[in-house]
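Write out the 3D structure for:
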Amino acid sequence: MYEILKAVAVLFGAGLLAAVLLAITSHFFGQKSEEKLANIRNCLPGANCGACGFAGCDSYAEALAKGEAAANLCIPGGGTAAAEIAKLIGGEAGEVDKRVAFVHCGGTVHATEKVAEFVGMNTCRGKNLTFGGDGVCKFGCLGCGDCADVCPVEAIEVKDGIARVKRDECIGCGRCVTECPKHIISLIPLDAKAAVACSNKQKGAAVRKLCKVGCIACRKCEKSCEYGAIKVIDDLAVIDYEKCVSCGKCIEVCPVGCIVEASAACKGCSCGGDN
C-alpha cells in the first residue's frame, strides 16, 4: 500500500511541476508573442484593404508573426512598412510593387452620349443589369461611383460622368477593381507613363460612332513601339508594363487620344485631358 501511495505522490508531483513550468513558459512567451504581434500591427497603416491577400491588417499581422507571410505585401504601407516589419520578423524586406488604380475609360459627357434615362437604384451594378447601362457605349464607365463608395481613402471621384482616380491619394488596394461591374479599372505601376483610357473591343468604325476618344484599333501605337510593349488585342490597345520603357511614343501617335499620360491627366483623372 505504501509503495502505491508513493508512486501516486511522485506522479502527482511530476504533473504539478510540469503544469507550473508550462504556466510560467506560457506567461513569458505569450507576452513576447503578443508584444511582437502588436509591434507588427503598428507597422501597418490600418487601411484593412486586403491588397496583401489577407482579410485585413490584423490577419496579415498574425501571419507575419507566425512566419507565414512575406514582409513586402502591404502596398499602402510601401517600402517603409516592409523595412520595419523585416526588422521585427527577420529576413529581407523585399521590394513593394507600388501600383495605383486607373479607369480605362475616357467617355466623359463631352465625348459620348446617353441612350436612355435610367430610373432606379443609382448604382453601377444596378444600372449594368439594365441593358448594360444608359450610355451608347456598353463598355464604358457607368458613372454611379460604386468604386468611390468602396475606396477606403476617398481617392476616387465621379466627374463629367466617369470615375476618376486621384493618383496622389490612391493606395493601390484594388477594392475598386473588384467592385466595378464593367471591369474597366485595373492597377498599373505607379511610374507608368502611358495608359489606355478605353475598354471598347468593338471594331473601329463602330467605336467612332459611340465615343470621340475610343480606341479605333488603328495599330499606330503598336507600330511605333520598338519594344513590343503595346499590342492591339481584340480591337483594343493593351500595354504590357513589363516591356514598357515609358518612352511615350504611343501617346504621341494615337489619333484619337485614348492613350494618355497616366501620371498627368487632369490632375489625377484618367480621361486624358479636358475632353
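Residues 27-31, 265-275 have pLDDT under 50 and may be disordered.
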